[in-house]
Structures are given as C-alpha cells and as structure tokens.
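Example A, followed by Example B.
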Amino acid sequence: MQTVPSDNLLHHVEEIETVYTKNDVNRFLKQGWVLLSVGSGQEQTGQHDYTPSFAYCLGKIKPKNV
C-alpha cells in the first residue's frame, strides 16, 4: 500500500476520472484509485419530483520510483 502525505496528494495524481455510480466508484477504488471529491445535486425526474445525484472525482496516484 502506497502512503502519500495528505498535503501533497494532488501533486501525485497522474490521472483523474469522474464517475456517477457507486459501482463505478468501488471498481476504481479496488484498482488503487483515491476519492478526491464528491459533488451533489438534484435531477428532475418528473414535473415536481427530484432525486439526488452525485458525481465522484477519483484520482490515480503516480507510482513511486523505486
């Protein structure tokens, strides 16, 4: 497991991906990506009905040179 100091985390991100479902989030996390941020909002599903929606931003950390 790679440990990166939190104050320098963004300097170690080599790729960013935005996904919209928990299944996709879990798939990326299992591949070693880290959760960078979560955005939330509402989607209109009917004339007066809204459901919450989420966008998850994940980052792939650069491999450490050995």
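Example B, a separate protein, is given below in the same form.
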Amino acid sequence: MVNTILKEADLFCPNSVRINFTIYHIRTYGTQQLLVLNNFSDKTMTVPLPEKFQTAKVLITNEATLTPTAIMTLPPYATIGLLQKA
C-alpha cells in the first residue's frame, strides 16, 4: 500500500507522500533503504508499514517504545527512521 501511494506522490515530491499529517519518505543508497515516518499532528496515526521494513533497524526515533510492525501506531509528533539492508 505504501509503495503505491509513494508512486502517486512522485508528482510533487519524489519518494515522499503526505497522508493527513503523516509523511513517509524513502531514500535508497546502493542496497540500503531508509524509511522515515513523521506524524505532524496532535493525534495518534496508524499507518501500514511495507513488509521489507518490518525487520528493519531503528536508526532514530523520538518515542522509545516505537518498533517496526506491520501496522505502525505513531503517537502525536512522533518520528521513526528505519534502515533496511538488502
């Protein structure tokens, strides 16, 4: 689901998409991919996580309890960066 949305978002910002106040961004370097999820609202947001990122390493987050899961629940103003190596 996320990948489909990202392709549609290429029109305004390559590899990024905004859904309500949640922004997904994927960067690729060689065989590594970085996915950053940001919740810029004062409400909890639930978003699907692509399967390949469900086992990714958490690089940075401002919420210590956030871990990669099939459905991510982002608290208000939460950010998480996930690194997946191929």
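On Example B: Residues 1-14 have pLDDT under 50 and may be disordered.
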